[in-house]
Amino acid sequence: MTNTHHVETDDEPGALLSRPPIPAVRIAAVSKIYRSATQPVTALDDVSVELQRGSFTAVMGPSGSGKSTLLQCTAGLDRPSSGRIFLGDTETTGLSTRASTIFRRDHVGFVFQSYNLLPHLTVAQNITLPMLLAGTVAEPAWFDHVVASVGLAALTARRPQELSGGQQQRAAIARALLTRPAAIFADEPTGALDSSTGRQVLDLLQHAAGELQQTVLMVTHDALAASYADRVLFLSDGRLVGHLDHPDVAQVAARMTTLGGR
After folding, report:
1. pLDDT in tens, 218-254
2. Is residue 133 part of a domain?
3. Staple partner for 209: which of 56, 78, 93, 100, CB 3.0–4.6 Å?
4. How many Cα atoms sit within 13 Å of 23 on the Cβ side?
5. Would you say the pTM of this structure is higher than 0.70?
6. Is residue 22 situated within a structural domain?
7. For residues 94 and 122, what is the distance between their CA atoms, to the nearest angstrom?
8. 16 within some domain
């Protein structure tokens, strides 16, 4: 009798179960060099990192460390000079300009320090605007769930100017969540808010990651804001120089001191 050796293929259940999940975000050996009239400026220098689905990651570093460049390149707002970036199983660095614009609209959420709400639209219309531009319609049940999650269920008919700053930022987060994006990119999301309102927004971003399984990448200079994240990445001179997992405010502040940050 001949013994046969069984080779498991990718189509078989065992192979699928053993395969690690695809990271929500993968940044592979990314560099960004800005050309100037005098000399090139290296904003990012061979940065590699993976973010798992449902994670909340903060990026910190001194002024000029490259943290905003990292966010912009990862979100597809700028192109790296070299390296590869994946959101889910899509390599965004391989997309044409038009395809990149469409991908960002459909698969990327943004939350900025300025809320970027249109004053002539209602809260509901502002939240659903990206889907309207894409020619799609939000599922009513998901819309209701998102606005309830951010605490705006009773305010969807109001205009932005009728809301507080914190409520406007909640509307911006709801807009980012509605398309179920591959990731949400937050650039100093609490920078224009008082400390109490800022903590509420950070609680909401924690909820988005933990309960809604949304991947959040946040740039901040605030040690308190960073302490809400699962992991804090530290940049210096364009290079990733370390990280802290589940840190407290004191740990983040101490690490920033060693980098010359505030």
Report:
1. 999 999 999 999 999 999 999 999 999 999 999 999 9
2. yes
3. 56
4. 14
5. yes
6. no
7. 36
8. no
Expressed as residue numbers, the domain containing 124 is 53-79+96-259
CATH code: domain of residue 165: 3.40.50.300
pLDDT value at position 262?
Answer: 45
Decide if pLDDT at 105 tops 60.
yes
Tokens of 203: 């609680």
Residue 8 pLDDT greater than 80, yes or no:
no
157-182: burial string, b at 16+ Cβ within 10 Å, e else: eeebeebeebbbbbbbbbbbbbbebb
Query: What crossing angle do the helices spanning 165-178 and 140-149 adopt, rounded to 10°?
Result: 150
* Element containing residue 145 per DSSP (H, E): helix 140-149
Does residue 238 contact residue 44 with C-beta atoms inside 8 Å? yes
- How far apart CA 84 and CA 94 sit, in angstroms, is 8
Q: Which residues pair with 218 in a beta bridge?
A: 58, 186
Total count of domains within the chain: 1
